[in-house]
Amino acid sequence: MSEVKQIKNSEAKKISDKKTKSLAEGNTKKLTQSKTRSKKIKHSYKVKDAENALVLKLKNGDVVIEMYPDAAPNHVARIKELVRQGFYNGLKFHRVIDGFMAQTGCPYGTGTGGSGKKLKAEFNRNPHKRGTVSMARSMMPDSADSQFFICFADCPWLDGQYTVWGEVTSGMEYVDMIKKGDGANGEVKNPDEIISMVVVADI
């Protein structure tokens, strides 16, 4: 048997072709999801109306939010528009008060910003209860923008003063796991983030 020659590091051929490191998007292979698989995923969420339902992906699991287009048509339309733009992906739950609510939707992560489009209030008869999703706003009624909150418990004192646009119908246990704030007014240090939000119909 002939002796196997060991190649030294200096003799080894190195890949240095930069073309392989920055392929154009059109030349890269992407994993696709079959229509059958997508249909199964949609069905697994068991929503009444896929066009008016969202999947809020958190670090601990998926949260399903069914929206109220009849009660708050303009808010629902705007939320869907922002979701489809990817606006909420990566945003922080900057204000979280145990036993009350978790607030998100500020692009700065401070509660001081929005998308730049104010919405006219659509106060309705839907109560603020555990799992309710409602719009945050300033003292002015028509100041809601992109920030919203999810109630951890019943909050009847908010009824009729904030626009309720949806309800968590699945995954509330993951909302409960959102990191709580211990700062002034529920400010959170190193807050949890929205991994992604998607309209169920788009899955």
How would you characterize the overall build of this protein?
- With 203 residues, this protein is of the alpha+beta class.
- The chain has one domain: Beta Barrel (Cyclophilin).
- 14% of the residues lie in helices and 19% in strands.
- The chain has 3 helices and 8 strands.
- It has an 8-stranded antiparallel β-sheet with strand order 3-4-6-5-7-2-1-8.
- A hairpin with a 3-residue loop joins strand 3 and strand 4.
- The longest helix has 13 residues.
- It is globular.
CATH architecture: Beta Barrel
Briefly, what CATH class?
A: Mainly Beta
Q: Would you tell me the overall average pLDDT?
A: 87
What shape does the CA trace take? globular
CATH fold title: Cyclophilin
Query: What structural class do helix, strand and pairing data support?
Result: alpha+beta
- The helical percent reads 10-25%
In angstroms, what separates the terminal alpha carbons?
60 Å
| Total count of strands | 8
Largest sheet: 8 strands, antiparallel
Give the topology string: H per helix, E per strand: HEEHEEEEEHE
- CATH homologous superfamily title: Cyclophilin-like
Kindly estimate the percentage of residues that lie in beta strands according to DSSP: 15-25%
What count of helical segments does DSSP give? 3
